[in-house]
UniProtKB/TrEMBL annotation:
This is 3-hydroxyacyl-CoA dehydrogenase. One of its GO terms (biological process) is fatty acid metabolic process. Keywords: NAD, Oxidoreductase. NAD(+) binds at residues 22-27, 45, 105, 110, 132, 156, 286. The keyword Oxidoreductase applies. The lineage of its organism: Bacteria, Pseudomonadati, Thermodesulfobacteriota, Desulfuromonadia, Geobacterales. Residues 17-196 form the 3-hydroxyacyl-CoA dehydrogenase NAD binding domain. The keyword Transmembrane helix does not apply.
Length: 296
């Protein structure tokens, strides 16, 4: 990997092998996208059971692609053949050119993973995090060479969403940024780049909009149904904010609000109407009820 990468056009020549840490909602989707682009991926998680689940989610998603006529059985076979599964992080990352960390949103956990990456990866490997809010500079503080650490924020579901938000830590090098832009294009995604700042672009804008929707309900001005309908029909959003919150899970929101409030003040404080729902276990689709009710 070197700074000539920016001259290489859209094809990523430097990244031939990727490791993904965490095989949950994001990690298995990211692995599928990378393998579909013809690149080998090692997917790592803490148990074989979880990895089996990821494997079946990927196979089911590829089957949907076949049903829609976008893939053939042969494509499915070769994509699946490019993904390996292991609970051994050292094994997963040892020859990776790029590692995408997609473990749960917990700073201590992410730091412990980055310490391991520092120990087991090739010195020239790029270390990316899919964090939705943690400072990339802070994540990079536990590795010997922070210039190789970068934020690579994918969106849910990674297979369908076109954007990757790239976050540049204080010490991220130009070469690493160029390589990640090139790689993102090679796996079929568009990119935006922003400086390391709480909530980046997407989380900051999303939370601001969502909290205003929650306040409209809290003040008794409108129902979730009508606010979602407004967002869909007046602004062309594919989903309303209440529908989207239920899809992603309400339990991740209080921590995001707290971190944004620490940085930007009261405009990001979580409203009672959200906190009470989370305390009552109404977490969205996964619990059967959030802002809306779902058949289990
Ligand atoms: N879900 C979303 O909509 C979304 C969107 C963008 C970014 N993100 C970010 O992506 C990251 C992952 O989110 P997710 O929704 O996929 O979470 P998830 O809970 O679905 O998956 C996390 C996976 O990491 C595994 N894991 C836990 N500890 C591990 C360890 N030490 N080593 C390896 N694997 C480990 C878990 O077993 C789990 O399978 C988070 O930082 C989150 O903020 C999530």
């Amino acid at each position: 990997m070197n700074s000539d990468n920016k001259l290489r056009g859209e094809e990523s020549m430097g990244i031939g092998k990727v490791a993904v840490i965490g095989s949950g909602i994001m990690g298995h989707g990211i692995s599928q996208v990378v393998a579909t682009a013809g690149i080998n991926v090692a997917l790592n998680d803490i148990s074989d059971q979880v990895l089996e689940k990821a494997k079946s989610h990927i196979a089911a998603s590829l089957d949907r692609g076949i049903q829609r006529g976008k893939l053939t059985e042969e494509d499915k076979k070769s994509i699946l053949g490019r993904i390996s599964y292991t609970t051994d992080i050292a094994q997963a990352v040892k020859d990776a050119d790029l590692v995408v960390e997609a473990a749960p949103e917990n700073l201590e956990l992410k730091h412990s993973i980055f310490r391991k990456l520092d120990q087991y990866c090739k010195p020239e490997a790029i270390l990316a995090s899919n964090t939705s809010q943690y400072s990339i500079t802070e994540l990079a503080s536990v590795v010997a060479n922070p210039s190789r650490v970068i934020g690579m924020h994918w969106f849910n579901p990674p297979v369908a969403m076109k954007l990757i938000e790239i976050i540049r830590g204080l010490e991220t090098s130009d070469a690493v940024l160029n390589e990640i832009e090139t790689f993102s294009a090679a796996v079929g995604k568009e990119t935006v780049v922003c400086k390391d700042s709480q909530g980046f672009i997407s989380t900051r804008v999303l939370v601001a909009m969502r909290l205003e929707c929650y306040r409209l309900v809290e003040e008794g001005i409108a129902t979730p149904e009508d606010i979602d309908k407004t967002l869909r029909l007046a602004f062309g959003h594919p989903m309303g904010q209440f529908e989207l919150a239920d899809f992603s899970g309400l339990d991740i929101e209080p921590a995001a609000c707290e971190a944004l409030t620490k940085t930007f003040g009261d405009r990001f404080r979580a409203p009672q109407i959200l906190l009470h729902r989370v305390k009552a276990g109404k977490l969205g689709r996964k619990s059967g009820e959030g802002w809306y009710k779902y058949d289990k």
